UniProtKB/TrEMBL annotation:
Gene Ontology annotations for the cellular component aspect, listed alphabetically: mitochondrial inner membrane
Gene name of the record: LOC123093463
One protein family per Pfam: Mito_carr
Mapped Solcar repeat ranges: 5-94, 104-194, 214-300
Localisation per UniProt entry: Mitochondrion inner membrane
A single BP term in Gene Ontology: mitochondrial L-ornithine transmembrane transport
Source lineage: Eukaryota, Viridiplantae, Streptophyta, Embryophyta, Tracheophyta
Keywords: Membrane, Mitochondrion, Mitochondrion inner membrane, Repeat, Transmembrane, Transmembrane helix, Transport
Name under which the protein is recorded: Mitochondrial carrier protein
GO MF entries: L-ornithine transmembrane transporter activity
Entry keyword annotation includes Mitochondrion: yes
Length: 306
């Protein structure tokens, strides 16, 4: 029963991490999606940069415009993070066995993270499709159909494009999550390990206030760096995913590499990394919040980690 209880707790703390990530990171994500959808077309750039995009959203739609599609993100990321962190923790424990060595091992981290990333891509594909379509439809609607809510978007997509339509961009999401999360957890585990080794001292261990400050500081740095590593490695795949998901033409290619080739020919390498600024600006605080929430929720629930 203890094993089952610990497993359930891992999924609960994963949800807490997801909620924290959405609260902090969604406005940055809205700017990123708008840049990816509108600055990679054959008609040229709609927004000069991330600041121009943000100011346009605030002027035309207000603060609520930055949180468009957030309800689907809360639902999707809470469930996704629960499965992601929970599956990662369980797979890591299974591969690590009863080894007393707490030093990170690539042969344990990479398959655990890649498997959990591939699993959550099945949830992320439809939830991100509704989120992206909500985010790109400003007041000047470019598409024939306007959506009043993420649910309305999902229903209309199903009616027009069927089940296959709601999973548009699924292959790009799978590649992004499997590769990106392997990079994320390698960065997290190694940076956390080396920071603890460097900072740990009798002074910290004898003062509970310093211990809390140290743990939060390491959580912020390791989480922030891991999030930036994830997006630096996978942003081109995310650009392809956004284009595939926001294109309403059912005949358009769903092959992320073919789409990326098209973007490269139109906009060069800068087009493949469209939205890099707001993505990295979001990645650090959002993932720092997620890791701190994950680690401290685990402590509250009594999950012991080395």
């Amino acid at each position: 029963m203890d094993g089952l209880g610990d497993a359930a707790k891992e999924y609960i703390v994963g949800s807490a991490a997801g909620v924290a990530q959405v609260v902090v990171g969604h406005p940055f994500d809205t700017v990123k999606v708008k840049l990816q959808a509108h600055n990679t077309t054959a008609h040229g750039k709609v927004y000069k940069n991330a600041f121009h995009c943000t100011s346009r959203i605030l002027v035309e739609e207000g603060i609520r415009g930055l949180y468009k599609g957030a309800s689907s993100s809360f639902i999707g990321i809470a469930l996704e993070s629960s499965l992601f962190f929970g599956t990662y923790a369980q797979a890591k424990q299974l591969l690590q066995g009863k080894s007393e060595d707490c030093k990170p091992r690539l042969q344990v981290i990479i398959p655990s993270a890649a498997c959990s990333g591939a699993l959550i891509s099945c949830i992320l594909a439809p939830t991100e499709l509704t989120k992206c379509r909500m985010q790109v439809q400003g007041k000047d609607v470019m598409y024939a159909t306007r959506y009043s809510s993420p649910l309305d978007c999902a229903v209309k997509t199903l009616q027009r494009e069927g089940v296959r339509g709601i999973f548009r961009g699924g292959l790009a999401t799978l590649y992004r999550e499997a590769i990106g999360n392997a990079v994320f957890f390698c960065t997290y585990e190694y940076s956390r390990y080396w920071m603890h080794n460097y900072i740990d001292s009798p002074q910290f261990s004898s003062n509970s206030g310093l211990v809390v400050a140290k743990d939060i500081g390491i959580g912020i740095m390791s989480g922030g760096l891991s999030g930036m590593a994830f997006w630096t490695a996978t942003l081109p795949l995310d650009v392809a995913k956004t284009i595939i998901q926001t294109d309403h033409n059912p005949q358009s290619s769903r092959n992320p590499f073919r789409v990326l080739n098209m973007v490269y020919r139109r906009a060069g390498l800068a087009g493949c990394y469209s939205g890099l600024g707001p993505t990295l600006a979001r990645a650090f605080p959002a993932n720092a919040a997620a890791i701190v929430a994950w680690e401290y929720s685990a402590k509250i629930l009594g999950i012991r980690r080395e």
